[in-house]
Amino acid sequence: MRLRVAPVLLFVLLAGSCASQRGGLAADFDAAPLFGMVYDGQNQPCAGVGIEVDGVEGPRSDLRGRFVVPGLTRGQHGIVARKDGYEELIVSVSFLARTDVLHLRLTSFAQLLEAAQAALRDARLADAAALLARAESLDADDALLSYLLALHAWKAGDFPSAVSRLEAMLAAGGPQPAVLLFLADIHERDLDDPAKAITSLEAYLALRADPDAERRLATLKRRVSAPAP
After folding, report:
1. pTM of the model
2. Which of 45, 173, 200, 229 could form a disulfide with 183 if both were Cys (CB 3.0 to 4.6 A apart)?
């Protein structure tokens, strides 16, 4: 009696056998190129990222975020990805098959600030503090970062720290309307210091016409000049 195998079953058996052979061949190697892709926090290709492999400088990602590490030995490897304006990424990679593709994701300074602003808006102060600290390690002198740090201090109730940060911004970058108005608000409403609030409002109005601020200033001046009861 001859054993007949249905065509569909024969195809499945052959396909399974081929897949098994391919898997075996893919894992049977001493060294092979490792292909990789680098993305940013918005899933966009990240170009110009330097790739370090086991402490040795390697390739740089192209315009599409792609890179190739040639002749990488099978096994465990340490990978470091670096680009100015982004957090350094350190990963441990198990390269066990020729078909392995390494996907890396970097977080930029701008993305950290965006996430910190969202956390501040939602009153997630611990999350905001962690994000701001990460951003500060990349660019401690950034003006928006300084403002967000002052805003975080104010939301946390640390008004002197908020004032100190805002005054440092003025000293470093000159008169800034938003900073001066924020200072006036803190001095008037949180620290009950109308004299300093007047100084900040006057400096603010010297830069920008604002009827509401003019009325506030007039009210504060009447308050300061009023005789004590």
Report:
1. 0.81
2. 200
